[in-house]
Design a protein that fits this description.
This protein has 247 residues and is mainly alpha-helical. It has 11 helices and no strands.
Length: 247
């Protein structure tokens, strides 16, 4: 189990844990179960830094927040976001879209997506900053639910590029209790704060919308689509919780 948790850090973050572990289906399964929890850790640490800087400057707290998030996550999901935007907005046939997404070069739409993402997220971080460190929980729960919705997407989608890491995640997640475990955790957290349930519902709806779009564009999903879902859900849920905090 420990090896699976370590693998989760190694695959889905840049938090340095250099212990060598086997890249096998059992460890990938544990890594995926831990994936949303890792998201909570990344989000909470980001929120902690934002809230500590916030009393001095709202704008700088947001800018530092996005830097901390990218540093901790390694920007691995942002690569998928750029590739998907390059491919989907090219308006080509499915085969050509997949070729564009596989290309290591970032195109115009990918660059625009990353710039807009950075501006939006830094702005929201700055607005969500507070001298109340309880806000750290909301930063964490947004990153947790964004990754939970990606597990849902993996389970409900057809991979169109067999043999890659996306295919390995799909295989490992089937037969796993990951989604059930996190649904139980979400129910418990919702009893503590009803906003968690609202965020969870919308995160799943967002994932379903992306699944539908991806199916129309390329006939299914790829690992890049998983990363795109994680990052788009982060943005949407941050906006949503910013609104819900006024309730």
């Amino acid at each position: 189990m420990i090896d699976g948790i370590i693998l989760s850090f190694q695959l889905f973050s840049r938090i340095p844990i250099k212990k060598p572990v086997d890249y096998n289906s059992d460890n990938i399964k544990i890594a995926l179960i831990f994936f949303p929890i890792l998201g909570f850790i990344i989000g909470a640490l980001t929120g902690l830094v934002v809230n500590l800087v916030f009393p001095y400057s709202k704008m700088i707290s947001g800018a530092i927040g996005i830097l901390v998030y990218i540093f901790l996550s390694g920007g691995i999901h942002l690569d998928g976001l750029a590739d998907v935007c390059d491919g989907f907005f090219s308006n080509r046939d499915p085969e050509r879209i997949l070729e564009i997404m596989k290309d290591s070069m970032v195109g115009t739409f990918g660059v625009l997506a990353l710039v807009i993402y950075g501006i939006l997220k830094a702005s929201i971080y700055g607005e969500m900053g507070s001298i109340n460190l309880y806000q750290v929980f909301y930063f964490g729960i947004v990153s947790y639910l964004a990754r939970f919705s990606t597990l849902i997407l993996i389970l409900r989608s057809k991979i169109v590029r067999p043999g890659g890491f996306g295919s390995a995640m799909e295989t490992a997640l089937k037969g796993s209790y990951a989604v059930a475990i996190h649904l139980f955790i979400i129910i418990l957290l919702s009893i503590y704060d009803f906003r968690v349930l609202i965020l969870a519902i919308f995160s799943i709806l967002n994932a379903e919308m992306l699944r539908f779009i991806s199916k129309k564009k390329i006939g299914g999903v790829t690992g890049d689509v998983y990363g795109t879902n994680t990052e788009l859900n982060e943005i949407f849920l941050l906006l949503l919780i910013w609104g819900l905090l006024w309730i």
